[in-house]
Amino acid sequence: MAAPAPATPQHEAPSYRLQREQGFRWLNFSPELEVAYRRAPKPMTDHQSNVALFCGLVIWLAFIGMDVIRLQDRATDLFSNPRLLTLVQVRITVLMALAGCWLALLQTDPRFKRPWVVAGMLYLLTLGGTISNDTHAALGTPHENNVLILLMVVIFLPLGLRLKEATAVAVLCLVSVLLVSLANHPEGQRESIFYRLFYLLVAACIGGMGAYLREYAQREQFLLRAELEWLARRDALTGLHNRRAFNEHLELALSVGRRDNQPVALMMIDADHFKLYNDAYGHAAGDHALQRLAEVLQSLCRRPLDHAARTGGEEMALVLYGVNATQAQGLSEQLVQRVRALALAHKASPTAEHLTVSVGCAISLPLEEGKSLYTRADALLYQAKRQGRNKAIADIDALSSSAQRPTERPV
């Protein structure tokens, strides 16, 4: 009798591991991972953007104070000088916008999307700073040309914007600076516009390089954390959930079942004479057999609350949500039949010529806890083993009591 094929490599790697191996030089994941990355909570980034907006508010107030000092001799010309009036309007408009959006973000108002608010404030600061500097230049008062360079670097700081978003804001700011500068500088003085844009572009390149390296590291950390969390809750050989995840999920399923008046079926599965199988064919073939069994269990998980786990060695478990008596019996027998259909030769088995399983199926009772349900299912499993193995035994009494609960689950 031919021996089974040797074990294949471990279960298929999770998508985040594949993504990490393939790389992401353009800072893009696969569509599913990209959605998960963007939805991942970033409380530290939120805090940083709040602090940055507050600092921007304080700095803008400081510039207003400097304007008061620099222009105190011209206060009487406020309403007669259009440039002075424009300067005051710009300062007040930006100040009010900064204060309003900062307060809105502190209250996590859902009407304010954080990236849009941050982008708007950065643009508003750049535009306001450009107009203010050009106005001071026209008035012949001291002004800070380097402020715009600092703002261009600030756009790429970790304020909640991804690199592509920050780059879009930077391009929009550069175009706006160009247009405002062309409007405010006479044709004979426009040489300075070239130098202004050149320095701003250099600052944007430096800031963009730093933002790229930072986002790349953040994305890599996201993939590594996701992989570690996956490994902490999965069995490395089969890819099924491990015992820890099984215990947590069983309690969750029972809790939801009590709330919705739905039964939960727990199947305990044991590969018959598996030690003899390993002795006859080797541990590599045994690993392959467990992987095939895991595939059968996974094929029976059809609902979000269904759960397949490897609880230890050759023992596995299956949690099925919302089953009635007929469905529970049918699914248990179907599981045994599907394992038979694998036709994994087992010449050392006294039960059959191929690998078989024994199954104990218990249905949750009202208000039952996970430990009690597990104990009943485990007892039924050993009852099936005592009765010759290669079969499924269900708790008939519990099945009868659950038959009245409404379910819509196909077998």
TrEMBL record:
It holds the Pfam family GGDEF. SUPFAM superfamilies: Nucleotide cyclase. It comes from the Bacteria. Keywords: Membrane, Transmembrane, Transmembrane helix. It is an enzyme of class 2 (transferase). Its EC number is 2.7.7.65. Gene3D superfamilies: 3.30.70.270. It catalyses: 2 GTP = 3',3'-c-di-GMP + 2 diphosphate. Residues 262-397 form the GGDEF domain. InterPro entries: Diguanylate_Cyclase, GGDEF_dom, Nucleotide_cyclase, Rev_trsase/Diguanyl_cyclase. The chain crosses the membrane at residues 51-72, 84-104, 116-133, 145-161, 168-187, 193-213. The keyword Transmembrane helix applies. NCBIfam families: GGDEF (TIGR00254). This is diguanylate cyclase.
